[in-house]
UniProtKB/TrEMBL annotation:
It comes from Jiella sonneratiae. SUPFAM superfamilies: dUTPase-like (SSF51283). It is an enzyme of class 3 (hydrolase). Residues 173-362 form the 2'-deoxycytidine 5'-triphosphate deaminase C-terminal domain. Keywords: Hydrolase. This is 2'-deoxycytidine 5'-triphosphate deaminase. Its EC number is 3.5.4.13. The lineage of its organism: Bacteria, Pseudomonadati, Pseudomonadota, Alphaproteobacteria, Hyphomicrobiales. GO terms for molecular function: dCTP deaminase activity.
Amino acid sequence: MDASVSGILPDRSIAALFETGAVSASRAREADQIQPASLDLRLGPVAYRVRASFLPGGRHSVAEKLQRFSLHEFGLEKGAVLETGCVYVVPLMERLALPKTVRATANPKSSTGRLDIFTRVLADNAQEFDKLPAGYRGPLYLEISPRTFPILVREGSRLSQIRFRGGEPMLSAAELAALHARMQLTSADAANISEAGIAVSIDLAGAPGSLVGYRGKRHTGLIDVDRRGAYAVAEYWEPIRRGAAGELVLDPDEFYILVSKEAVHVPPDHAAEMTPFDPLVGEFRVHYAGFFDPGFGHSAAGGTGSRAVLEVRSHDVPFILEDGQIVGRLVYERMAGRPDRLYGADLASNYQAQGLKLSKHFA
């Protein structure tokens, strides 16, 4: 890998990582596994139920920690149910031998976050979740904890994705403001831009009684993460209607699907990531950070701007959200090259031109 490369690696560069051995897998790569700016990670054939979440730390492998903290091991070849409130660790099919100029970051896939499945990637000697330092060589593991719905997973299921980057591709506030001036990144009349990114606010507007979100039901049936359009919305979600005041009280430890007021888009030569909002402004957070691929909501990919779907939780105390309140920020990064395929244009993209939308599992 050219040491001068700066930016998020596009699809063809990710494919090149396989060719050079920087990424390898125990099973052949699948045709749709590489996204415009990320790689889907696949579950391996075994899983471990563990006592609690853990980090291996600077001197230990994940396998060593599993020997201490694992309660039992079970196979995923024929599928297995992961229960809510439990923590599991699954070795992934993919492993890394990164060049010294390339580092990586992992995140839950969009559909994973919308099911309230808490996932984080673990690596040997790691002192942080979801971050793989430049030059990392070794296996990858996924910590999984379903929060609202029990799920059925199997070998090959994809719950997480990984991005590779070189240099320092993140845009400064000034660069982000200049890009917004050229490309109108959000539909906001006056974009709130800082070093932390461009603000995204909550949409609770509309006529009284109109649908503004969903709250996950408790004690539901399980969800097979590999089945699309297989489940009735009413069996898993309680619709949230706009009240007369245009506000929503978040109950502690409940899970909500809401939508941004702004339509956003990602130009083809950039990628974006939703970051959780600063908890100092309120006792809530956008629960899962998320990747936005090049072309998301962009006209070059057949979009006219897409709303950002937000997975929201309140912690410890009830919290009132009001229409237009900032709940997250989008950070933009430069691509190292334009992808060969854009989100929405060349892929069977589930969430292009979306509004308030549940995951692909619901009909």
